[in-house]
Design a protein that fits this description.
The protein is of the alpha/beta class. It is elongated, with a radius of gyration of 38 Å. Helix 4 (121-130) links the parallel strand 3 (112-119) and strand 4 (133-135). The protein has helices at 9-13, 49-54, 81-87, 121-130, 158-164; strands at 77-80, 94-104, 112-119, 133-135. It starts with 8 loop residues before the first helix and ends with a helix. The protein has a domain at 77-135: Ribosomal Protein L15, Chain: K, domain 2.
Length: 165
C-alpha cells in the first residue's frame, strides 16, 4: 500500500531538542561567536584577538617583546631642512616658527630665522653656513628643593683653647 500523505520533515523534528540545527548554539542568531563579551579571548582564542588587543589600551596579552607596551616612546615631531625650505620658506629673512618640532639636517641651509623646540647639530651648522639661524628655547636649570646647607664651624682661636685648660 502506498502512502497518500507523507509527514513533513518539520513535524518529525518538532520533538527533537535542536530541531535540525545541530548544536544548540548554532541557531541563536549570533553566528558562531562563542559567547558574550570577551569570552574566548584566552591564550588560544584566535578569533577574537583583534578586539582583545584594542581593549584595555592594548595591554590585554601582557608584555610584548623585550620592552613592555607602556615603555615611553619618542613622540617628538621631526621635520627636515629640505621640507621647511620647500613648503614654508618664501623669501630671504623669513621668520618661521615650529614650536613643537625638531629640525633635522637633511637638505641645504637657507637665509631664514627658524624658531623650534629642538634642532640637530648638522641643521644648525648648515643654517649658519648659509646665513640663517635656528633659535632654540632657553632651558631653565632644575631647582633643587632640598639642598643641604652645611654650617661652617667657627675656627678655634688660640684664646679659646687656653680658656678651656
Amino acid at each position: 500500500m502506498v502512502k497518500v500523505h507523507k509527514r513533513t520533515k518539520n513535524s518529525r523534528i518538532r520533538g527533537a531538542r535542536t530541531v535540525g540545527w545541530g548544536f544548540r548554539q548554532k541557531h541563536k542568531g549570533h553566528g558562531n561567536k562563542g559567547g558574550f563579551g570577551m569570552a574566548g579571548t584566552g591564550k588560544r582564542g584566535d578569533h577574537k584577538k583583534q578586539s582583545a588587543e584594542q581593549s584595555v589600551k592594548g595591554k590585554y596579552f601582557g608584555k610584548q617583546g623585550a620592552t613592555s607596551q607602556g615603555t615611553k616612546r619618542d613622540k617628538s615631531v621631526n621635520i627636515n631642512l629640505r621640507d621647511v625650505k620647500a613648503n614654508f620658506f618664501k623669501k630671504d629673512g623669513d621668520k618661521i616658527s615650529f614650536p613643537k618640532h625638531k629640525i633635522l639636517g637633511v637638505g641645504e641651509g637657507f637665509k631664514a630665522e627658524i624658531t623650534a623646540l629642538a634642532a640637530s647639530a648638522s641643521a644648525i651648522e648648515k643654517m649658519e653656513k648659509a646665513g640663517g639661524k635656528i633659535i632654540l628655547p632657553v632651558k631653565k636649570e632644575a631647582v633643587k628643593q632640598y639642598k643641604k646647607v652645611e654650617k661652617k664651624k667657627p675656627a678655634k682661636t688660640e684664646d679659646d683653647s687656653e680658656e678651656g685648660e
